[in-house]
Design goal:
The chain is mainly beta and 357 residues long. Strands 1, 2, 5, 6, 7, 8, 11, 14 and 15 form a nine-stranded mixed beta sheet that branches. Strands 3-4-10-9 form a four-stranded antiparallel beta sheet, with no helix packed on it. It is built from four helices and 19 strands.
Amino acid sequence: MFEAPVPMPRLAPQPPIYFCPKAAGEFVLDGNINKPFWNNVPFTEDFVDISGGDFPTPRFRTRAKICWDERNLYIAALLEGDEIWATIKQRDSVMYYDNDFEVFIDPSGSTHNYMELEMNAFNTQWDLLLTMPYRNGGRSVTAWNMPGVETACMILGEVNNPAADNKFWSVEIKIPFAGLTETYSKEKNPPELERCYPVRNAPTTGEVWRMNFSRVQWTVDVADGKYAKRTGTDGKPLPEDNWVWAATGLIDIHYPETWAYVFFTENGESCPMPEEEKIKLEMYKIYYAQHEYCRRFGCFAKTAEEAAACLPTGFAYDADAAKKTIVETTSRYFELSRKLTCGKTMVVQCDGFNYIE
């Protein structure tokens, strides 16, 4: 049911694409990403400001790597910079009050029932299951613990010592595929869309998931030999920086349709983008426009073209694709649909959930 209009990203989504290779060799979890296991795994693009576009380049460089085998997903990240500090040691605490590294995984690409994992330089974890994005009234299930997840940090320098020769901190994460069963929504997907959960323990070669990574970095000063968050004139800490792999176009990471495409491959070979993913991305632009139309006029547009008039100037979208999108509305709900060349239909609901029927 419709609750409130979804905020409009300032820029059209441009998700990165990553061809994730199979892991080579035995994995030893220690936080060190400078070892043979990772040598042939490519880095992602450098992280950018979450708002994207012309926002300033992050002052510290961040990159990540991903690989996989029949049982596990492996993630590594390199967080450069000389401000290495942490305070939180209790698991499942709100981790972004510290500098942290965050992982978001939506295996089905439905934007609902996805997972989040955050960790700081003490290797303290916070894992959550999201029923749907907060913008759609989603809830975070903080009591959920990701089965079998293992993490490690390595520090080149010293945590909480500004006088040390601090260079970077790096992380390694091992996530068993079998532990991601909850992120598959069997109830809402028709049988022909069933993915690998819980029937198989791993994705198939060529399968694509949606993922994003984030680095939260606070502005600090050094006082009495310790880091302290810089405060504004009101005495409160300045807002944190949010640096991400895939920019969402606004200060909200919970826009799963904007996250990177991660293709599972044998050796990092390129894969063609599925037609449904191309169409889905265009449909979400109309999805944003519908919510903006409702904010302005108190109702939903009857056509995609009518809704598209509410997109910001410079917001790139495919006008021909909009003409092919069918809009169905009530006073409190809308649904977008479009035929695929295979004869099936891609659907995006008012609450952001998407599926093929």
